[in-house]
């Protein structure tokens, strides 16, 4: 099912670079709001900075793909030093198509990291790449996201019912 998470992490910091390497993942497509930082926030937590440095040191490339506006995404992406795609229209796979060409990898080497099942998880599934689902870093701000969030719990429950665990 394209909406059930394949794997759930507490946050991005819990995604170990060595684990990514063991899975053959060499490129990450990163969501911004409630994945790398809070919803609408420009704050970069030191722990996220360290995680990004460790990921890059492990030879894993990264790019940002967000549904939010360039005005929101560009300053944060520049602060991190990452290339970005805004207005990506996830779950449509168009942003992932751009990202994959930019990253120059095969689909099996690429994974989407994001906090929403109806955008990040579904986009990854439709594009045929893995999704590393993370719990949201903080509260949602936009009405649209709040609405989609209401429909997530049954799919997350299905993951746990099938024996999935929260990776911390
Ligand atoms: Mg998000």
Globular, elongated, flat, extended or rod-shaped: what is the shape? Answer: globular
Mean pLDDT: 97
Tell me the number of structural domains. 1
Distance between the termini: 24 Å
Order of helices and strands: EHEHEHEHEHEHHE
* Sheet with the most strands: spatial strand order: 4-3-2-5-6-1-7
Counting DSSP H or I runs of 4 or more residues, the number of helices is 7
Question: CATH superfamily membership, which one?
Answer: HAD superfamily/HAD-like
For this entry, give a set of tags:
168 residues; alpha/beta; Rossmann fold; 7-stranded parallel sheet; 39% helix; 15% strand
Structure explained in plain terms:
- There is one protein chain.
- The protein is an alpha/beta fold and 168 residues long.
- The chain has a single domain (8-167), classed as HAD superfamily/HAD-like (Rossmann fold).
- The chain is 39% helix and 15% strand.
- It has 7 helices and 7 strands; from the N terminus they run βαβαβαβαβαβααβ.
- It has helices spanning 17-22, 46-57, 70-80, 94-103, 117-127, 143-149, 153-161; strands at residues 8-9, 27-30, 61-65, 84-85, 110-114, 130-134, 166-167.
- A 7-stranded parallel beta sheet has the order 4-3-2-5-6-1-7.
- Strand 2 (27-30), helix 2 and strand 3 (61-65) form a beta-alpha-beta unit.
- The longest helix has 12 residues, at 46-57.
- The mean pLDDT is 97.
- Magnesium ion (MG) is lined by residues 31, 33-35, 114-116.
Please outline what is shown here.
The chain is an alpha/beta fold and 168 residues long.
